[in-house]
Amino acid sequence: MYTKEIENAAEHFKKLLQKQLERNDAIKTQGDFTDYSALDKIVIGICGGDGIGPVITAESARVLKFLLNRDVEKGRIVFKTIEGLTIENRIAHMQPIPDDVLAELKTCDVILKGPTTTPQAGDGRPNIESANVAMRKALDLFANVRPVRIPAEGIDWTFFRENTEGAYAVGSDGVNVTDDLAFDFVVTTTEGTERIARLAYNYARANKKDRVSIIQKANVIKTTDGKFLNICKEVAKDYPEITTDEWYIDITTAKLIDKKRRTDFKVFVLPNLYGDIITDEAAEFQGGVGTAGSANIGKKYAMFEAIHGSAPRMVAEGRAQYADPCSMLRASAMLLSHIGYIEESKALDKALDICMFENGKYKITGRADGCTCSEFGDYVMETLTALSSGRA
Ligand code: IPM
Ligand code: MG
User: 11 CA distance to ligand 2 centroid (A)?
Assistant: First the structure.
C-alpha cells in the first residue's frame, strides 16, 4: 500500500538530505568573522521591505547617517539603498529574494532591513519562503541575537537563537505524503550548533555574564534537540567559570513570567523556533515587539532588523507615518557596535532609553494622537546632540 506515495516522499527527502549535507560541509570550511576594523570602507545596505518597513528603515538610516556623519564624509562609511525586496517584486520573480536583489545585498558588509511580508499557507498568495528566512540562509546569518533589558526589574537577557537550522532549515520544503499526511523536517548539525553555542558563551565571557541557559525539548524531540543540548554542553566545558543550566522550552516560557526566578537568567542559547517564540514573549515585558531590535550575525555578513512584522494594517488604514521606529533604532545600535562604533552605539541606546521611557516629550502611539515616526527621529537626534554636549 502507498508504494508510490512513499517513493515520492522518499525522493523528496533524498534531495533535502543532499542539500543539508552540502550545507553542513560548507560550514566546516567557513572562514573567520569579518574584522571590520581592518576594512578601509564599510558598506551599509539599507533595505526598506514592506508595509511600515520603508518608513521606519528610512528614519533609522537618517539617525545612523547623523551619528556616522564624519566617517561618511571621509568615505569610510558608505550607505547603499537596496531596492526590490518587496512582496510585489518577490511574487513577480517567484523568489523569496530576487537574484539581482541578493547580488546587491552581497555587495554590502552589513544590512539594515525593514520587516518584510511573508505569505502564509492558504492566504491566496504563492507559497514563497519568508524573505527574512531566505536572507538568513543565503548570507549564512547563523546567530540571531536579541537583547531584552528592563533595568528597573533586574532583567538583562540576551537570546542567542540559532538562525539557519531547526524547524526553519527546510520549513518551506515539507511534504504532503498523501492528502491526509503532512511531514515537516527539523535539522540539527554538529557544526551549526557548535558555532551558535560558542558565540553565546564567548558573549557571556566577554560581558561577564555568569550563566548560560540551554533551552530545548530534548525529552520529546530526542534526536535534533538532544543533539543541540549535548553539543552545547560540550562547548560549555570550555567555559568553566560560567554556570550552565538546561531548561525545557515549556517551563522556560513559564519562568520568564516568574518575577522571583526570571532575573537569574542571563544568556540563552536555543534552537530556531523556540527562539522565535520566546523572544516575542520576552520583548513584551520590555514594552512590546516594537521596542526590540535583532542582530542576524554570520561570519561574512550581518543583518539588523526589527523583531516584528510589516504591519500591513497600519498602511491600509493610512497610519504608516505614525509607525514606531524604536525596534529599528535598537537594531541600528546593534549594527553600530557590530562594526566597531561602540561609543555611537552606546549613545544611541542611551538616547533611546531617554526618548522611550524617561521624559516622554514625544509619545508614539501608532495613531494621530501620537507623534510621527520622523518627529520621533528628530527627537532622538536632538537627544544625541544634548548627550554629546552634556546637556541630557
Ligand atoms: C522573526 C520573525 C520571522 C521568523 C518571520 C517573519 C519569518 O517572526 O524574525 O522572529 O519567524 O523568524
Ligand atoms: Mg518572530
Answer: 31
* Alpha carbon nearest to ligand 1 atom 7, residue: 130
| Ligand 1 atom index nearest CA of 279 | 10
Provide the percentage of residues in the chain whose pLDDT is more than 70.
99
Q: How far is CA 30 from CA 38, 134, 170, 204, 238, in A?
A: 19, 19, 21, 23, 21
State which of 116, 276, 308 you would mutate to test the pocket of ligand 1, scoring each by most atoms of that ligand within 8 A of its C-beta: 276
What fold, for 34-141+298-392?
A: Isopropylmalate Dehydrogenase (3.40.718)
How much is the pLDDT for 231?
98
Average pLDDT over residues 253-276: 97
Per residue in 116-173, pLDDT (tens digit) is: 998 877 788 888 889 999 999 999 999 999 999 998 899 999 999 999 999 999 998 9
User: How far is Cα of residue 115 from the mean position of the Cα atoms in its chain?
Assistant: 11
| pLDDT band at residue 392 using 50, 70 and 90 as cut-offs | low
- In this structure, what C-alpha cell is assigned to residue 152? 528597573
Q: Where are the domains of the chain?
A: 34-141+298-392
Amino acid at residue number 11 = E
**218 by DSSP, 3-state: which?**
coil
Taking the C-alpha atoms of residue 30 and residue 143, their distance in angstroms, rounded to an integer, is 15
CA 191, 196, 199 angle in degrees (round to 5)?
A: 120
**Which residues, chain by chain, have CB under 5 Å from ion ligand 2?**
276
pLDDT class of 191 with cuts at 50, 70, 90: very high
Band (pLDDT 50/70/90 cuts) for residue 340 is very high
Distance CA 114, CA 82 (A): 11
